[in-house]
Structure formats: C-alpha cells, structure tokens
Specification:
This protein is of the alpha/beta class. The chain has a domain at 51-175: 3-Layer(aba) Sandwich (Rossmann fold). Helix content is 27%, strand content 34%. It is built from 5 helices and 9 strands. It has helices at residues 28-32, 34-45, 62-74, 129-140, 159-165; strands spanning 12-15, 23-26, 55-59, 77-83, 91-98, 101-108, 117-125, 144-153, 170-175. The strands form 2 sheets. Strands 5-6-4-3-7-8-9 form a 7-stranded mixed β-sheet, sandwiched between helices. A hairpin with a 2-residue loop joins strand 5 (91-98) and strand 6. The two termini are 28 Å apart. The relative contact order is 0.17.
C-alpha cells in the first residue's frame, strides 16, 4: 500500500492508450487504494465546506464513482449524466464535439429542480467538451452550477480555460502536461 499525501502519486500513466502517442492517466489505481481514494474525495470536498450544495452531478463514467462518494459525504442527491440511450424515462440531451467526431449526453428531465445548487464532478478535464455539455443540461433544467471539480487537469488541451470562459469555477487536484 502506498503512503503519500499527493493524489498524483496514486495515478498511473499508460503509454499509447487508447491510441499511439496518448499518455492515458489511469485513476483506477487511485480508486483501488483506500487511502488514496479517501484522500481524493476529501480534497475534492474541501473547497465546498460550508457551501450549500443541493445535488452532485457525475459525468459518465468515472464521475459516477467520485460523484456518488461526494454526494454521500454531503448527504445530498446524486444525478448521473450518461451517454445517449442509457437512461430510462424522459431525458433531455446535448450534443458536443469529440477529438474524432461527436457525442451526445443526456439527463433525466426531472433530475434537477430550478434554483438547485449543483456541483459537477468527473475524474479528468481534457478539452472540456463533456463538462460543457453537462453544464448546459443542468442549466436548461434551471440548476445553478456552483463549480466543477476534477482529479486531473490536462492544461495543454484547454478544458479549464473553456469552462472558465463560461463563468464556471473549476477545481482540480493535480495536472499532467501533454496529451
């Protein structure tokens, strides 16, 4: 078992995954270590001590793991934003651009009530496309985004700047240079 006070030490890098030239930042090693996972959740929660949050929204898929744990600690509801076709019931959707095409995410149309204070959670911020689509869905339902929180930021891909240009506060635990 690792003993570190830096979340970054619990994240492994896999070279050339899923494509050649990519350095994949794998948080499953962080999730698998009880000390590392607890530390990450505690650090993600820290900026929001004393802040009213009504619901935590997790972006598919690793955002579900983090968001569920954070919602539990805050004693608030958890709302998943999923890929198109994965949620039962009535949904609203948002299309966004990927590096190699486009994708669509959805949320239940009754998951957020107007005026609710929302914390958006995911593991990694790259280009910011998925997070921006999630923000738009929450806002269409009348939710107020308090902040987005991530374990990892890849600053070279510009996601943080993209979200901040929308007026969104962004918190991250660590950064990795490159793709």
């Amino acid at each position: 078992m690792r003993k570190s006070t830096d979340v970054k030490d619990y994240i492994r890098t896999i070279v050339d995954f899923p494509h050649e030239g990519i350095l994949f930042r794998d948080v499953t090693t962080l999730f698998a270590d009880p000390r590392g996972f607890r530390m990450a959740i505690d650090q993600m929660l820290h900026p929001y001590a004393g802040v009213r949050i009504d619901k935590v929204v997790g972006l598919e898929a690793r955002g579900f793991i983090l968001g569920g744990a954070i919602a539990h600690q805050l004693s608030v509801g958890f709302v998943p934003i999923r890929k198109k076709g994965k949620l039962p019931g009535t949904t609203i959707s948002e299309e966004y651009q990927l590096e190699y095409g486009e994708a669509i995410v959805e949320i239940h149309d009754d998951a957020i009530q107007p005026g609710e204070k929302i914390l958006v959670v995911d593991d990694l911020l790259a280009t910011g496309g998925t997070a921006e689509a999630g923000i738009k869905l929450v806002e269409r339902l009348g939710g107020e985004i308090l902040s987005c929180t991530f374990i990892i930021d890849l600053p070279d891909l510009g996601g943080r700047k993209r979200l901040e240009a929308l007026g969104i506060n962004v918190d991250v635990l660590c950064e990795f240079e490159g793709l």
